[in-house]
Amino acid sequence: MNPTETMTPSQVQDPVRMGALKMETIAAVSARAAEPDFLARRRAEAWAFCEKTPFPGRVEELWRRTDISALKWDAVVATHEPYTPARSIADLPAPLRDEIGPASERSALLVQVDSSVVWSEADAELGKLGVTVLPIAEAAKKTPALVERLLGGTVRFDESRFTGLNSALLGGGALVHVPAGVTVPRPIRILISRLSPDVGTFPRVVVALEKGSSASVIEEYYSPGEPGIGVNVGVSEITVGEEASLHLATLQRWGANVYHFGVERVRVARDARFHWTFAGLGGKLTKLDMEMHLDGEGSEAKFSGCYFGNETQHFDFHTFQNHLAGHSLSDLLFKGALRGRARMVYQGLIKVHKDAQRSDAYQANRNLILSDKARADSIPSLEIEANDVRCTHGATVGQVDEDQIFYLMARGLDRRDAERLIIAGFFEPVLERIPAESLRTLVTEAVERKAAV
Q: Rounded distance, CA 103 to CA 240, Å?
C-alpha cells in the first residue's frame, strides 16, 4: 500500500540517493528538521567518518560468511521529505493498523513510516510519572540535555560504516527514559515500518532505565513487502540502571526485499535484571550484532531468541555476553529453523574478564534443518580470564526427529501436520515470552505460515 493514500510528504522534493550524498546534503537534513546544534555536529562528524571508511568486507572474521557486494548502495534513497503526521491511528495504512493491536496492551506507542514518525501517543499517567517516550528529534528539542547524554553514549558513530551512516542519516527513532523508582504498567511499543520502494531507513532506538525502575519495551521492524529493494541500518542503545528491570522484545518481520543491518547493545548495571526476547523472521539478508554487557556486580541478562528462514533468506547473527563484573549471570538460548536454500550464520562469544569472578554464563544455539539445501553454521565460543566461573556453551544442527514424526503420525496426523506441530513446539518457549498478546499472536501466525510452506 502506498502511504500517500493517507499521508503525504510535507513538501515536494526529489529524493537523494546514497551515491549523491555530500556534506551539504547532511547539513540540509539537519536544517530542515531545525535540530539543535549538537545533533547537527554529530551528523557532520559521522558523515566525515563515513566518507573515509569503507563497508566491511569478507576479510573480516565477522563478515567472512556474509557477502553484501551485490547490494547497490548508490541506488538506495538516503533522504527524502518527511510524511505529515497522521491525525489518528485510523489515518495509518491498513497493514500498520493491523499490527498495532488494542490500546489496553500498551502504555505508549510510536509509529515510524520510512524515516518519519507519523504517530506518537502515551498514557497521561506516564507524563505524571516523568516517563519520556518521544521521537528523537522531538526529544532533542524538549529535553536536549537528556538526548545529548544518552545518544551515542553506548554505540559510537565511529565504530563502523554502518554506525556512521545511522548517525549521519538518523531519521525517526525513539527515546524512552524511565526515571528512578518508576514502574511502567504496560509495554511501550515502537513500530518501525517501511512502505516505499528503494528507501534506506536509519532509525535509532534509545532506552534508558534509571535506578530501581521497571519497564517492558517492544521494538518491531515490519513491512508488508513494498516493491524494489530496501535497506535498514539500525542502532539500539539500551542502558539498565542499578536495581532496574527491563524486558525488551525485538521482532523483525521485514518483507522479503529488505537488507537489515543492525547493532543492538545493552549495558546492565549492578543488581539489574534484563530479559531480551528476539524473533527474526523476515528480510532478504540480516546482519545483526546483539551485545549484552554486564557492568555491575549481581547483574543478570537473559536472551531468548528464534529465527525462521526459507527460500534464499540469509541470517548472520553475532552475540556477545560480556562479563565485566563478578557474580553476574548471562543465559542465552537461540533457536532456529531453516527451509529451502536459507542460510544462518551464528557466532557467539562469552567473555569473562579477570575481575569477574563467580560469573555464570550459558550459551546454546539449536537449529532445525528442514530441507536438503538449507545450511546453518554455528560457532559458539568462550574467552575466560577468571578462574572461578561456570560457563557452558554448545550448538546443535539437525533434522526433525523421525521418532517424534512417527509418534504423531501413529496418532492420526499426516507427515506435514506432524512436522508443523514439532516446529511449533520448538519455538513456543521463545514466542510465549512476547509481552503483548495480540503481537504474540501475529508473530506465532507468521511462524506457522512459514512452517506450512
A: 26
Sign of the torsion formed by the C-alpha atoms of 15, 21, 23 and 26: positive
pLDDT of residue 2: 45
List phi, psi (to 5°) of 149: -75, -40
pTM for the predicted model, two decimal places: 0.94
Burial of 9 (0-12, 13-18, 19+ CB in 10 A): middle
Q: Helices 415-431 and 402-409 sit at what angle, rounded to 10 degrees?
A: 120
- SS3 state of residue 70: coil
Which amino acid belongs to residue 430? Answer: V
* Nearest one of 300, 313, 196 to 242, comparing CA atoms: 300
> Whole-angstrom Cα distance, residue 8 to residue 27?
23
Query: Sheet of 300-309: strands edge to edge?
Result: 116-122, 108-113, 188-193, 214-222, 245-253, 273-280, 300-309, 329-338, 360-369, 390-398
What does the CA dihedral 150, 151, 155, 160 come to, rounded to 10 degrees? -170
| 385 touches 355 (CB < 8 A) | no
Tell me if 306 sits within 8 A of 334, measured CB to CB.
yes
Q: Euclidean distance between the first and final Cα of the chain, in Å?
A: 25
Query: Contact, 39 vs 156, CB < 8 A?
Result: no
Angle 154-155-161 from CA coordinates, rounded to 5°: 175
Confidence at residue 428, expressed as pLDDT on a 0 to 100 scale: 92
In the numeric block, which cell numbers belong to residue 437?
498478546
The candidate with the shortest Cα–Cα distance to 193, out of 132, 133, 234, 147, is: 234
What are the 10-residue block averages of pLDDT along the chain, 453 residues in total?
Answer: 47 73 92 92 97 93 93 91 89 91 95 95 96 96 96 97 97 97 97 93 98 98 90 98 98 96 98 97 97 98 96 97 98 96 97 97 96 95 95 91 82 83 89 91 90 80
CA 108 to CA 218: how far, in whole Å? 10
Tell me, letter by letter, the H, E, C secondary structure of 160-212.
CHHHHHHHHCCCCCEEEEECCCCECCCCEEEEEECCCCCEEECCEEEEEECCC
Determine contact, residues 429/366, Cβ cutoff 8 Å: no
Q: How far apart are CA 251 and CA 28, in angstroms?
A: 32
DSSP state of 83: B
Q: All 3 cell numbers of residue 192?
A: 518501525
Mention every residue, 6+ apart, whose C-beta is less than 8 A from residue 207: 176, 177, 217, 236, 237, 238, 239, 246, 248
Residue 332 near residue 362 (C-beta atoms within 8 A): yes
Q: How far apart are CA 149 and CA 322, in angstroms?
A: 23
C-alpha cell at 310: 526459507
* C-alpha triplet 5, 217, 445: angle, nearest 5°: 65
